[in-house]
Design brief:
The structure is a single chain. The protein has 60 residues and is mostly helical. It is built from 2 helices and 2 strands, in the order αββα. The longest helix has 13 residues. It is globular.
Length: 60
């Protein structure tokens, strides 16, 4: 796992990691300031945002 970026730490405080209850490992947010907010992870490859987006999309 790559470490979270400074932007990632802003989006997923305090440490830039996202972990849902069903996940065995956290995902680091690798977003940059140029990423959309909210980010879906599709364009930038951020696994934290992709995991969050996929989890929310599966609820809908």
């Amino acid at each position: 796992m790559n470490g979270p970026t400074d932007e990632g730490k802003k989006r997923y405080p305090p440490n830039g990691l996202y972990q849902a209850k069903y996940m065995t490992q956290p995902h680091a947010c690798t977003c940059t300031a140029e990423c959309t907010d909210p980010c879906d992870g599709e364009d930038c490859g951020c696994s934290a945002c992709l995991a969050l987006h996929d989890g929310v999309a599966s609820i809908d």
